[in-house]
Specification:
The chain has 187 residues and is mainly β. 2% of the residues lie in helices and 50% in strands. It is built from one helix and 15 strands, in the order E-E-E-E-E-E-E-E-H-E-E-E-E-E-E-E. Strand 7 and strand 8 form a beta hairpin.
């Protein structure tokens, strides 16, 4: 796969290890005949280490031999998150340390969860770019403050804390960006 074709969320092989691309920066050439540089921020999916990759536009990386399987959350214990493949009913256990960031955006019965399967073992989970979560607790809004751009802390059903507009009330469903953790709007 050419460097210019690599997108966020793509899994490529770098230094003989599968790496998930998490960020891309394009640097245009400053001189005539210079090559465009693509700087990728990636995470090794097996070791969880951050990796920086720099390629010219004409260089390429191989696609990793990965499978993405749609899964649902079965349960969570003190050591692992237990998932089940929705087609084959195969079960996977993912250590909580490996999915701590994703857990704050996940709830029971959520659609769009993809398990990353490498050598028949679940090494990670992909969550949708946006999720809908219910506000579990927030301070009441003060009348007359709806016209201002002020925000207040919102505690969501998964325990996630975000900032949202003052007009929101407890029990409302909001959309949250899972990449940044920011409030996007009402659901």
């Amino acid at each position: 796969m050419l460097a210019k074709d690599i997108k966020n969320g793509t899994i490529v092989v770098y230094n003989e290890a599968p790496c998930l691309i998490e960020g891309i920066q394009v640097q245009s050439p400053s001189a005539r005949g210079g090559a465009t540089l693509y700087k990728f921020r990636a995470r090794n999916v097996v070791t969880k280490n951050k990796v920086d990759i720099t390629l010219k536009g004409t260089e390429s990386l191989d696609d990793a031999d990965f499978k993405k399987r749609e899964v649902s959350v079965m349960y969570q214990d003190v050591e692992a998150l237990h998932l089940m493949d929705t087609e084959t009913y195969e079960q996977y256990a993912l250590p909580l340390d490996d999915c701590a960031n994703e857990l704050q955006y996940m709830k029971e019965g959520q659609d769009g969860l993809l398990a990353l399967i490498y050598n028949d073992e679940c090494v990670g989970i992909n969550i949708p770019a946006t999720v809908e979560l219910t506000i579990a607790q927030c301070d009441p809004g003060v009348k007359g403050n709806s016209a201002t751009g002020r925000t207040k802390p919102l505690s969501l059903e998964t325990g996630l804390q975000i900032q949202g507009p003052e007009y929101l009330k407890q029990g409302e469903v909001v959309k949250v960006d899972t990449r940044t953790g920011e409030f996007l709007g009402r659901a």
